[in-house]
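Q: I'm writing up a methods section and want to include an example of the input and output format. Could you take the sequence below and give the corresponding predicted structure tokens, formatted cleanly so I can copy it straight into the document?
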Amino acid sequence: MAIARKYVPHVLSQWGKVQRIDGGDTIHASELVAMNENSRDATYVRYQLLVDKYATQRRRTPEFVPQDFYGQLRRIFVLELPPSAELRTDEASTLLLAAIQSVKTQEASDVQRVFYKDDGALDVVDLASIQCVVGRVYDTQRNSYGIIDRSGPLARAVFVDDSETPS
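A: Here is the clean output for your methods example:
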């Protein structure tokens, strides 16, 4: 952590919007972009992270699997990183991070929909982990929000193991 702190500037650049490649969704950062009363809320997203499926078993070797999460994009941070032996980088690079207020989801047994009532932790993740914008609709019977994800099964992250070096 001490090494990473040396490379984080005291003042960060921030973006209010980002668009997925090839004409995809434009995603807004809720704390940086004002929303009109009659506009679509493009701040809620589905993002995918690798999670250790044996996290509760301390002595077991970790095995990471993709898992979907939902939340509200709050901010997008832009970090310009110099070449560094400590960071194992040969060239300058740009790191894009997303601050996402996660939501505590629950599956409904009677419909194929994910619902949430409460916010979860604030996650700071690689911006590339965001898969798509999702909608949400308030369900008065459940007293919670239903998440509308129309992205389909093909809109999923591909994780590459950077630790493997090509021969």
